[in-house]
Amino acid sequence: MPRYYKLIRITIIIWMTLVLIGAFSFGGFLLNIPNVAMLEHTARNLYFHVPMWFTMMALTALSAMHALQCLRTKNIVHDIRSSTAAQVAILFGLLGLATGSMWARFTWYEGTNIWWNFDPKQSMAAIQVLIYGAYFALRGAIDDPQKRARISAVYNLFAFVTVPFLLYVLPRQLESLHPGADGNPAFSDITDPMMRLVFYPAVVGFIGLGWILYTQRVRLSRALLKIQTINQQR
Prior knowledge:
Number of helices: 7
Shape: globular
Radius of gyration: 20 Å
Helix content: over 70%
Structural class: mainly alpha
Distance between the termini: 28 Å
Low-confidence stretches: none
Order of helices and strands: HHHHHHH
């Protein structure tokens, strides 16, 4: 393992530890959050739910970049990097959906058994995850590695084009319970600036965590590819 990689990984771990300390500070200790109407202490989910979507978007961008490089160079390593970034992106997308559903359950639908009501932002986020799920269904249907790399790279690029529209542009144009949607104030307008001291580091930390998972998966996939190549040459 490269020395710089170990240093970056340790830095991210320490960074996320500090984020967690800030996120769960209570009783006026350190960065206790203000009393936000309706949200109360569930407002702390801002430090997890939103950064997960930022991380997914960063990873889909990375995946699309390697998909483009794969089409340009026909190097299978770029296909590995592209598919791996998409895998980790889906993981964070699923975590974003789960944390969002729980947040809605204990704020918008408190006192009910509702976990999901097809709010536009919820629905479009779910569609986004399904689009990338279809990417892996497509990959699984093609046996030839080079053909799979080319076709899935093209699909990946089209999938990435939908990300800003489904996760940001369209939801803001429709009526939604989410902050920042049509007629609703942005989250920054209803929360205290103190929360930004944890929120922005949390975004950086979660993207760093996504990078760790991505690089580890890439190293594993490349090692398996090397073993497969050696076995085929025997």
